[in-house]
């Protein structure tokens, strides 16, 4: 039985004050009996706030990106060990915004996945096709290639140590969600791709859906057999909305 995970990706939003309020809001609303695991990924500069605010709660926290390097002259980068030092459990790698705006290749994302694991972090590894790729009918080709990059780097054993997040690029921040059936199809494809190497690992790995998941559509997405939670952008910036999605994942 895979424990659902709902992770909030705040992206580059908020202020010190609003981050404190949001963390406290989530902390106050989280039920004592959560069957779903809950995590927040604020901008790195707010991670010490999460560390202080969430330390005595079941809520985990993590980063949004990680350097492939362990330390040294890499201005602006943050090492996995630094996230680990603030007790981060997770780190997002390969988000489509990093792939698109920062030119991150499949190979670099696989390196980041490995760097995260070396630091003891659990990568939330994002994959997904653009609208153009979907319309060309090459969704499986693209997602398969992205998944294979991590498997070629460290074997299926490496991939199985992370969480996969299927985020169709056309659904991110657009209000246009993949239908539960569309999402389920790709989730099943990803699981089968992993199962071809290791059926047990495939049965255990969590595959989250991300892309305009909201309180109003979370339950039907999460009801699908291969959707094990969500990576939530916009709706993670409002405590009430985020908590409603966590509750939907609980049910
Ligand atoms: P969204 O973002 O929920 O705002 O679509 C999801 C993500 O990019 O992780």
SSE diagram, text form:
Elements: E1 5-9, H1 16-29, E2 37-41, H2 47-54, E3 60-63, H3 80-85, E4 90-93, H4 96-101, H5 106-118, E5 122-127, H6 131-135, H7 139-159, E6 163-166, H8 180-195, H9 199-204, E7 207-210, H10 215-222, E8 229-232, H11 239-250
Parallel strand pairs: 1-2, 1-8, 2-3, 3-4, 4-5, 5-6, 6-7, 7-8
The structure holds 2-phosphoglycolic acid.
Describe this structure in words.
This protein has 251 residues and is α/β, with parallel strands linked by helices. The protein has one domain (33-201, 212-225): Alpha-Beta Barrel (TIM Barrel). The chain is 46% helix and 14% strand. The chain contains eleven helices and eight strands. The protein has helices spanning 16-29, 47-54, 80-85, 96-101, 106-118, 131-135, 139-159, 180-195, 199-204, 215-222, 239-250, and strands spanning 5-9, 37-41, 60-63, 90-93, 122-127, 163-166, 207-210, 229-232. The chain has an eight-stranded parallel beta barrel, surrounded by six helices. α2 links the parallel β2 and β3 (60-63). α1 (16-29) runs parallel beside α2 (47-54). The longest helix is centred in the middle third of the chain and has 21 residues, at 139-159. The model has no long low-confidence stretch (mean pLDDT 97). The protein binds 2-phosphoglycolic acid (PGA). 2-phosphoglycolic acid is lined by residues 9, 167, 172-173, 210-213, 231-235. 2-phosphoglycolic acid binds next to β8.
